[in-house]
TrEMBL record:
Signal sequence bounds: none
One Pfam family from the record: SnoaL
Organism from which the protein derives: Rhodococcus wratislaviensis
InterPro entries given in the database record: Cyclase_SnoaL-like, NTF2-like_dom_sf
Biological process terms in GO annotation: polyketide metabolic process
Domain of life: Bacteria
Protein name: SnoaL-like polyketide cyclase
Length: 178
């Protein structure tokens, strides 16, 4: 990473909050303004291959992936703590599961697909963001994935949900050309 200038605490806080908010509703230009060209998202291992690079393109790809699965997506910011160039943003991610939620393996192949349930979710998350040169250079998170799975009816699986997920996986693989 080629980063140099430290960012003042108040700017780190506003930058961190903005970087979370644009995941739900930001334009590609918003990502250019907030995300450093060398930025890396440590959470991209189970996301689509286009999210696994660096910079605004990869971060925007994550937003597109989330938005494709969850309509009415928003992140309610509950608290922000800043120390130096690091901010921790405690959020509640909310939305409606209206599209297939596609999970990928380490090779970038489709691993699992959860068919849309139409259910709403409210999931606790902590996002850790490092800032430099006035933009986000690193992101990682702690999420309540089990809580999300229970709220959306993925766990425990029912016979019907297993069939719906299998059909959604087949459709996603066909759309991806695999």
């Amino acid at each position: 990473m080629n980063v140099e200038e430290p960012v003042p605490s108040d700017q780190v806080k506003s930058l961190a909050v903005r970087s979370i908010e644009i995941m739900a509703n930001g334009s590609r230009a918003d990502f250019d303004a907030v995300v450093h060209p060398d930025a890396f998202n440590r959470e991209s291992a189970t996301e689509p291959p286009r999210t696994r690079g660096r910079g605004p393109d990869a971060f925007y790809a994550t937003a597109v992936w989330l938005r494709s699965a969850f309509s009415e997506l928003r992140f309610d910011i509950e608290d922000v703590v800043v120390e130096g160039d690091l901010a921790v943003v405690y959020t509640i991610m909310k939305g409606r599961h209206s599209g297939p939620f596609v999970v990928y393996d380490e090779r970038g192949s489709i691993d699992q697909v959860f068919a849309p349930t139409g259910r709403v979710l409210a999931v606790n998350q902590s996002h850790w963001l490092r800032a430099a040169d006035g933009r986000v250079v690193e992101h990682w998170a702690t999420r309540d994935d089990l809580g999300q799975a229970v709220q959306l009816g993925w766990v425990p699986p029912t016979p019907l949900s297993l069939v719906r997920n299998a059909l959604a996986k087949r459709a996603a693989r066909k759309a991806a050309g695999t």
